[in-house]
UniProtKB/TrEMBL annotation:
Predominant location category: cytoplasm
GO terms for MF: hydrolase activity
Lineage: Bacteria, Pseudomonadati, Pseudomonadota, Alphaproteobacteria, Hyphomicrobiales
Gene name tied to this protein: mnmE
SUPFAM superfamilies noted in UniProt: P-loop containing nucleoside triphosphate hydrolases, TrmE connector domain
Binding sites annotated in the UniProt record for GTP: 224-229, 243-249, 268-271
Gene3D superfamilies linked: P-loop containing nucleotide triphosphate hydrolases (3.40.50.300), Probable tRNA modification gtpase trme, domain 1 (3.30.1360.120), tRNA modification GTPase MnmE domain 2 (1.20.120.430)
Record's protein name: tRNA modification GTPase MnmE
Length: 434
């Protein structure tokens, strides 16, 4: 029998109110045992909750949402209790002591919603992104996906492909009864149109993935330029080790920033120099690699010892550091800062926000927000491209197989092909209680 799952769905730690959720066939029994019976469906009721020995745990608002009209599609109960650690622990302990009830795994409530047909996989990913969203732009994109934007596009594609496939299969099963060139024409026309739509969706993919993950801004420069000092100043905490010894930072260090509503990942790197030290050399190689794929490289070099950046095919902002060390305006830079006095830091933050905006804004809202979506749509485009290019010499079976493989890619995208390993990877990333 399906296990009934329980978890704290609100944030961990002390809070005014905490929400504990329960989903599965044992919900009715649990409500009878601890809340004196199930309240009227979908109506909040104030109840005394009792532990196994009959002792009172809390007075709480209780909700009963009978399946299938619930978030998971199963019977669901919610306990809105006082958010103290001992209250939550007593309630969870009492619930999980009831036969058939266990703690939920990360994302398991949402996984059940998908398995019961309440959401497709892309909408579930949208919910995960909504929980993770740190900026308004990320929230909007996640909400759109959770509302089924990609799901609707995918199911429209699937319906058209299935229709075209049915025509070709009729031809394979009953050769000579139909006019083959006419059937082929329908299949190639459908494939040609859908390739266009899939490619339009893919065109926004880079932006969609960027918005989800944030613009990538890499701090690079010679050793001792003040890179880690700047990272700490912008992050407003001591993330990276700072010292007067050149070659202090070896690995890349990332922090997430909200730049005027635009999410960004700021990456500190090892100082660039020729080195005999094999570990430092790996750090230098990593620094160059990150810089090469950044949306912006902030090239730092000391005002009293300016250095030129290597050739990079990405936008560059040249910043002179340690402005406090020289009197005359620094050379060969776009702006100058001093972590000591704070001079120039506000201007720099504005420039970073501009760069993040340039990397993330523009165009329509993206349908594709993850590499996983991109992979499946690219696979679709390859198969549809072959069908679109088919001619009289192409065997009908080949075109049909390509249409089938395109449909399969859509199935992997939306989760309608039941593929456990895809589910496991995706739902592992959720929080517990979601
Ligand atoms: N207290 C609480 N707040 C919450 C949730 C929750 O589970 N509990 N949610 C959870 O993530 C989100 C809201 N999402 C929800 C989505 C569907 C249903 C639901 O009951 N759907 C039924 C009935 C729909 C209807 O009445 O219109 C259904 O789909 O059949 C509930 C919550 C955010 N806020
Ligand atoms: N006077 C002055 N010193 C600074 C300033 N910023 C950083 N420093 C000092 O410069 C030294 C190097 O700073 P780091 O931030 O560790 O330099 P880095 O670029 O990360 O160096 P590596 O990790 O070795 O590549 C430290 O002693 C800092 O205190 C500044 O604005 N003014
Ligand atoms: Mg450093």
């Amino acid at each position: 029998m399906t296990a009934t799952i329980a978890a704290l769905s609100s944030g961990a730690g002390k809070a005014g109110v905490a929400v504990v959720r329960l989903s599965g066939p044992a919900v009715g029994a649990a409500l009878r045992q601890i809340a004196g019976g199930a309240p009227t469906p979908r109506m909040a009721a104030l109840r005394r909750l009792r532990g196994a020995a009959g002792e009172e745990i809390d007075r709480a608002l209780v909700l009963f949402l009978p399946g299938p009209a619930s978030f998971t599609g199963e019977d669901v109960a919610e306990f809105h209790v006082h958010g103290g650690r001992a209250v939550i622990a007593a309630l969870i302990d009492t619930l999980t002591a009831i036969p058939g009830i266990r703690l939920a795994e990360p994302g398991e409530f949402t996984r059940r919603a998908v398995e019961n047909g309440k959401l497709d996989l892309t909408a579930a990913e949208g919910i995960a992104d909504l929980v993770e969203a740190e900026t308004a732009g990320q929230r909007r994109q996640a909400l759109r996906q959770a509302g089924g934007a990609l799901e609707r596009a995918a199911s429209a594609w699937r319906a058209e492909l299935t229709r075209a496939l049915a025509l070709l299969e009729a031809e394979i099963d009953f050769p000579d009864e139909e006019d083959v060139p006419a059937l082929f024409a329908v299949a190639t026309a459908t494939a040609t149109r859908l390739v266009g739509e899939v490619e339009a969706a893919l065109a926004g993919a880079a932006r969609g993935e960027r918005l989800r993950e944030g613009a990538r801004i890499v701090i690079a420069g010679p050793p001792n330029a003040g890179k880690s000092t700047l990272l700490n100043a912008l992050a407003r905490r001591d993330v990276a080790i700072v010292s007067a010894i050149p070659g202090t930072t070896r690995d890349t260090i990332e922090v997430h920033l909200d730049l005027d509503g635009y999410p960004a990942t700021l990456i500190d790197t090892a100082g660039l120099r020729q080195t005999e030290d094999p570990v430092e050399a790996i750090g230098v190689a990593r620094a160059l690699d990150r810089a090469g794929s950044a949306d912006l490289v902030v090239w730092l070099s000391p005002a009293d010892a300016p250095a030129d950046p290597p050739d990079l095919a990405v936008p560059l902002l040249r910043v002179a550091t340690k402005r406090d060390r020289i009197d005359s305006p620094p050379q060969r830079c776009d702006l100058a800062i001093s972590a000591l006095t704070g001079a120039g830091l506000e201007t720099l933050t504005d420039r970073l926000a501009q760069a993040a905006r340039a990397a993330l804004e523009g165009g329509e809202a993206a349908l594709v927000t993850r590499a996983r979506h991109r992979r499946e749509l690219e696979a679709m485009a390859v198969h549809l491209g072959r069908v679109a290019a088919a001619d009289a010499a192409t065997p009908v079976e080949f075109a049909a197989e390509d249409l089938r493989l395109a449909v399969r890619a859509i199935g992997r995208l939306t989760g309608s092909v039941d593929i456990d390993e895809i589910y496991d990877v995706i739902f592992r990333q959720f929080c517990i209680g979601k």
